Every structure is written in C-alpha cells, then in structure tokens.
Amino acid sequence: MKIIDWFLERFKLKTIHRGIFDREIPEGINYFYCFGGVAFTAFLLCVISGLFLSLHYIPSEKEAYQSIIRIHEEVPLGKLIRGIHKWSANVLIVSIIIHFIRVFITKSYRPPRELNWIVGVLIFLLVMLEGFTGYLLPWDQKAYWATVVGTNIVGNIPLIGETLLLMIRGGYEVTGITLSRFYSFHVLWFPLLITLLLWIHFHMIKKLGISKPL
Amino acid sequence: MLSTFFIVICLVILRPSNPKRKEYIFFEISEEKLPKEGVKKVDIKISEEKYFRIFLIKTENSLIGLSPVCTHLGCFVNFDKNSNEFLCPCHSGRFDIKGNVLAGPPKYPLQRLPIKIEDKKIFVGLKI
Predict the structure, then answer these.
(1) Count of CB pairs separated by less than 8 Å, A with B
(2) Which of A199, B81, B103, B109 has a Cα at 20 to 30 A from A107?
(3) Can you give the pTM of this predicted structure?
C-alpha cells in the first residue's frame, strides 16, 4: 500500500478524489435518491459495451444484419456484450423515468435547481433518440418497419414534415443512407451531446447540493 | 450565434440534394400462389432469404395486388375474414377488399401494385 500512497502523493490524487467524491448529503434521504446514479452507471455500461460492439458491427445495407449474426455466433463473448448493451439501455430508460418521478415528487426542481431539471429533460429526450436510432441498426424486418413508422410520424407534421422526413431518411425511403446516418447519430452525435449535458447536470448538483427531503 | 450557424450547417448537410423515388421492379408470381377466390397473403421472393409480403385479391375476373403497408404511418395491415376488411393494428384504420378507406386516420387507399402478364406468366411490381 505504500507504493500506492507514494503514487497518490506524486499525482496529488487525494485532493482530486476529495473534490470529486466528497459531498454533503442531507439527512433523511432514501433509496429512490439512487436512481440518478443507477442511470449514470447504466449509461457507462452502454458506452463500454457499445465500444466493443462497434469493433465488429458494419453499418452498411448489405452487411449490417450479417455482422450482427457474426457478433452472436463467432465473436467471443459477442452475444454477452450485445445483451449487456441491450439490457443496460433498458435499465437506463427505466431508471431515468424513476429518477424523473422522484425529483418531481420531492419537488427538487424548485429554484435554484430549475436549470438542472431542464438539462435533465434534454438528456431524457436524447436518450430516447439514442434508443430510436439504435433500434434500426440490426437492420432486420422489425427494425426496418419500426423506423418507417417512426419517421412517418415526423413526416406528418404540417408544412415542414416532408423536408424533415427527407433530412432524417436521406431520401424518400428508408435505405442504406438512413442506416449510415442513424449509425453516426447513435455512436457519435448523441453520446457526445449526452456526455456534455451530463457534465452540466453533475456540475450543478455539485455546486447546488442535493435538495433537502420533504 | 455560433450554435445557430452550426445547426443550420447540420441541417443543410442532412438534406439530400436530389432525392429519387424508387422504380417498380417486377417479380414473377407462381401459379400455385394465386388465390382462387378472395384474398390471399403471398410472400414474394426478392432475393435469397428475403421476402416481401403482399395481398392478392381475386374478384370475378380481376386480379388486384395490394401493398400491406398502411397509408397512415406505414404499419402492416391484416386481413379480417369475418368482416372482409383490412385492419391496421396501429391506429385501427380500416380498408375494404379493394383497398379503399372505410374508417380511421388513413387518407389514401392502400397502394395498388401493378400487375402484368407476359407469356402467360403473372408478374407483380414492387418498389424495393
């Protein structure tokens, strides 16, 4: 342990550790206050398993489905990692909803934490979009038709609907172009935005503290 | 200011410059798949392991091919034998046996697929 202490002293990690993890917690909080942390853990699991999946997944019209089968049957631990990705995504959405309800019931959205609520709702919307874009990637019949129906809903908006539909699909139909842009959204744009918003979310929690229970 | 500029660039990049609608490709329907009378669900083989489901309707002397895709949002409709109608499971749109709208949110009838006969063989056109 002396070696670890030696390193910690050189890197000045002990003060950083205190800065990150030392928080004042009000009395009387219960387990429902954990669901923000559960959601963040699920998000981290999604990111890590997604990093591994992206090594084997091919976002092209002809190979997407085949590469998913290959992940299941040939890649070592591939099925497990895909399962973790799928189930942690489910846990993520469920725990965000519980967190959302907890904040609402305990009235934690009140000043000075209004902006934190707004940022949280944005994160929730982005996570839903992650779910929607990720659903297309297996490129099977279910994925294809779910995306056709989902994007058709956008197309029904008056006036700007058709332009929006073209922007999302990259053409009149769901094709390989749609697949590659959904892949880009799913693995680059949305995670990047979510990470940024999460930082804002956590920064405000750190500065404002956890709200006192009712 | 900068972020507005960024969003505008994103939207411009996402917009396809020259979107095209797909053309019909014709596939053969084998004799045993044709309905003798009434409605039949038929899987058309597009490629290896890939099938596309359509409805074939035979009434008196006419043969109609209908796309099963609901014109509201794109769910697959089912044929209900009891009421002789097509039912959409998503928002309960109803179509009659020729594809015309009876009730529900759809505004347009089910898409009719072109059918042509060459050398006594029957072909149906699909947009794939």
Answers:
(1) 37
(2) A199
(3) 0.83
Q: List chain B residues with pLDDT less than 70.
A: none
Coil/strand/helix, residue B77: coil
Q: What would the 3-class secondary structure string for A90-146 be? A: HHHHHHHHHHHHHHHHCCCCCCCCHHHHHHHHHHHHHHHHHHHHHHHCCCCHHHHHH
Burial class (CB in 10 A: 0-12, 13-18, 19+), B49: exposed
Strand partners, B8: none
B15–A167 CB contact, under 8 Å: yes
Query: B38: which strand partners?
Result: B58
CA distance B119 to chain A (A): 33
Q: Alpha-carbon Rg of chain B, whole angstroms?
A: 19
Question: Who among B15, B72, B127 is closest to A166 (CB)?
Answer: B15
Q: Distance between CA atoms of B115 and B126, rounded to whole angstroms?
A: 10
| Nearest in space to B14 (alpha carbons), one of A181, A176, A132, A156 | A181
Average pLDDT over residues A170-194: 92
In whole angstroms, how large is the CA radius of gyration of chain A? Answer: 21
Nearest in space to A65 (alpha carbons), one of B53, B25, B50:
B50
Nearest-CA distance B57 → chain A (Å): 24
Inter-chain touch B21–A163, beta carbons under 8 Å = no
